[in-house]
Predict the structure.
Amino acid sequence: MPRSVPLLMALVLVLAAAACSVGAIDPGYLQAGAHRAAVGGVTAGGIEVIRHGANGLPDPGLNSTLALRLQPEGGLTGLVISVDDPRPVNAVTMDVHYDPQSCHPVQAVFHDLLGSEEQVLRASVLDHVPGMAGVGEVLIGLPYHPAVDGDFATVYFADGPSRTTSAQVSSVSQNPGVGVSVGGVPNFIPTPGTPDGEASVTWYAGWNAWDTGDGDQNGVVTLGDLVPIGLWFSQGWSAPKDPTPVWGSLRADYDTNGLVTLGDIQRIAAHFNEQALNYLVEAADDTGSATRQKVADVPAGPDPPPTGAGTSPDLGTIFKKWNVDFTDTSTFTFQQLTALDADANGKVNVYVTPQDASTPPLNGTEAFLTLDVVIPTPTITSIDISFPGSATWLKRGNDYVVLVTELSVDDVLGNAEQFTTAPFAPETLGLTAMVETQENPGNLIDGTQWVIWYIQSGAGLGSVADGGSAGPKGELSFNDRGLLTVAAHAPGNFAVVGTITFRLCSIESLALSLASGGSGPTSVSPGTAVQFKVTGTFDFDTDPTNGNEETQTLTPYCNWGALVNPAGTPIKFDSGVAKLNTTGAAHGAKYQVTCEFPTTDDVSIYDNVKRASNFVTVNIT
């Protein structure tokens, strides 16, 4: 497309202007700073003006180039803004702050300081954001004005607040039509070249800046964003729009139609003063409904954008970019990321949402992508199997003793999978394989998901899951008594193996005794309480005398009963503490107390029989 400059290239946007015929504003009438935090501009009559620097943000360092004066005119008050800047400039843009309860701007007139209407783009945003207006102009193309000195613009104010409805300050754009591609180029991508066992994501300022009109990419939409329009005016990145695509023009094509035109100013006006100063990064399983976990807050930062001409569709030469890494040492590690993969398909979603500076922040349009998070299997050189839990488990040599009974841990504690009642067998026991690898010698790391789990000996006594439909890798369950050895070997290498052995013992006999010692009989006076103790003997083989037996106090886990003589003697027994209350028993009465283990009514597994104790006789004398 030819680069000719049209004869008329001036546009003044006055949003929600209202004519008012009221008296002139009294100098000092406005209270600058009453409605906002001061930014250190130049003031006149309580109106504050601050010029934008090269980054498009308010810059108090340019105060010395500004001069203000107030002049009444036709029932309005004109704020005349002069600029004296000896440096070469291609744009003059600024914010004008005022008290929206006392007055409002209704018109802006430019004085050709940078050039005539044929040479500049001009815009004013007046009453769109209560308390803040913007005026600015920018030279079309690349020229710089060698210096400026004179009246820049006059902003006219009417007394009283505006009677129009204005937009909310600092509301981040929430246009639902924004995607994660800019000019057809992916704007949010997995970082290329990331090694196995790590992940990284990169995003560019494109999707938010492109949509809101933040062409200078400083995180705030101001009239400073006129500058990219002036720089890339009449140029395009889309071949149908421009036969010689110039990808750098993406910076200024705010309406995303492929060509930089005056229409792009409308997007600045629509999103004036909106901010995207932070990026919230979150991650979750790729199901779409999983709860997100915060990864990081990434500030937009003050760094300037790239200055590349954009001769190829490389967004890195056009837009600012950020990235977040997931490694072993990052704040949010690769292991934490993989832990979010609840459906174990090797994929998680990462979300990036632009936010403003309010509390709580307003969110802009999020972007997300799906990452592959499969952990590459290292070369395993050793395996050590252990299991979690705070309980102290019985050990005989290298074997762990587990009492396999009808008592699940639920029955003991009323709380599944709490191992504080070891050595009773829980419903399932999660084993862990700590491994040493060729890539990381001398350091043990969790390799539970890498190793291959199986029963080495004692088939039928228990089962261990190796993932998939069988259950989580390393999940162990018990079936019967005997010696059970669980093993895990390195993938494809049976020579590297770890094992753990369990003595799975079941009940052999139950001994009831007096808590004070002995198995009775004992004689007590009527009303005297008698407390008992139960000891169980467990074994894992068929010989009850070869020394492989284990004893365990079972007092809390038994059913209780008693025979009485004479008939009708009251039986009062507190099973919680195994205590007989003889209140109401007559002299000469006799109790024969017994118990059975376990307390469950239905016995269908393991020993297939309840174990009953001996009788202990209590005589009432």
About this structure: The first strand starts at residue 42 and ends at 44. The longest helix spans residues 206-212. The CA atoms of residues 253 and 578 lie 84 Å apart. Confidence is low (pLDDT under 50) at residues 1-38, 165-179, 407-422, 602-608.
